[in-house]
Amino acid sequence: MNHLAQLDHAHIWHPFTQMRDWLKREPIVIVEGDGAVLRDVHGKEYLDANSSIWTNLHGHNHPGINAAIHRQLKKIAHSSALGLANEPASLLAEKLVEVSVPKLAGRAASQTGRGSSVASHYLNKVFFSDDGSTAMEVALKLAYEFTRRARGPKSKPHFLSLEGAYHGDTVGAVSLGHVDLFHKAYSGLLFKTDKVMSPYCYRCPFNRAKPEREDAREYRKCNWECVGLVEKKFAAQKRRKNPYAAFVFEPLIQGAAGMIPHPSGWLGQVTNIARAHGALLVADEVMTGFGRTGVAGGKLRKWETEKCPPAHFPTFPLASLFACHHESVQPDFLCLAKGLTGGYLPMAATLTTQKIFDAFLGRYEEFKTFFHGHSYTGNQLGAAASLASLEILQSKTSVRARANLQQTLASELKNLWSLPQVGDIRQVGLIAGIELVRNWRSREPFVLHERAGLRVCDAMAKRGVLTRPIGNVIVLMPPYCTTSPQLKKMVAALTESIEEILG
Q1: Per residue, what are the HEC states of 100-118?
Q2: pTM for this predicted structure
């Protein structure tokens, strides 16, 4: 066994990993990366098919981001945000505010009648932190205290999130989650939050359609009962005279729940219900942000690759960087991490409104300050990487490449329908979840202890493709630099591995 692998076995405790199994074999030790390719200590190459757990955007060792970090490193690596400001964090905050609402949105809204959400929920304040969990903790604390100050100090703000929700691993974020496998053991540490049905079309009890060889969202037969349940939940809480303080959600697709995508229109409907009941909207775009959810419909309009878009266009362009905007939803809190730095460094941001910000203003002796922070808040290296990543994301080359990659992914995924062990293929932009089943006609699942997803991913690794399953759902989430041949290899490795392990 390689010396580095021996050191790993001797000392490192890995996340979400049964270490008893881990210690039985030599781990893959990554030493280099270039684009969508990773290399291990033995020189073997692998395709990074899940973007290093959903973080990497433009590929490894990107010259533009490398150069930005190097330039900043020659100046200063870090100084505190407690009592001090810094150049890259200030520039990044300005840029995040800019991309959180597309240019001309207010002007277009007055012409299209779709802009009230944008105008009244303009995100112009940025609180930096370290990762997705901390971004959610910031939003949670702010929403909680804002509600108390609005309703009175004796109020008890309550939160609503979705079944299968996962919003991180710190105590507040875990309290918002509803994945028993991850969260049940810590129930004694948590505060109570409510959950409502997730729009899981493939396994929805209200979906009367028989399984077909197509994304379940496309052939479902229902009456939007899932939306009705959201309305009932809000109404019931209102009758208790304690309306929900906030509705917390991952827009368009739930990640750790099993890559569960929303049917078109669901997000707009349920956020309208939440707004009608006075709830704040907390959008967890830790996974979905920065272009992951792709281009609506898979095709760009001509002006979206031009420098100067026309004055008349919908409130949100199809190629918006954030999932919320695909359904013209503007939250009160926008939580960002993972891809913020392009996948280079741990950094997160929580964007919110002037109204939320103003609730924490006052004389020093009133102690209305937001007492929360992190040692590396606004880190210069992370901010420099983030600025470089955003510049790449907004380039015409990147926008076109993402649209093309999305179409290629859709085309390649169709080949998987020939496998009887594939029950559902769920794609949202450049995110895909392939649910493995024992029998596609009955949707019969593999039980977790069979480790079907893990065994398939192990077989993929032997074929030079790395990803990690969520139970029986195989995730494909390629970096944006992935070439067509590389993407085809990813899907081919998945096909061969399913046939080998489950065929």
Answers
A1: HCCCCHHHHHHHHCCCHHH
A2: 0.93
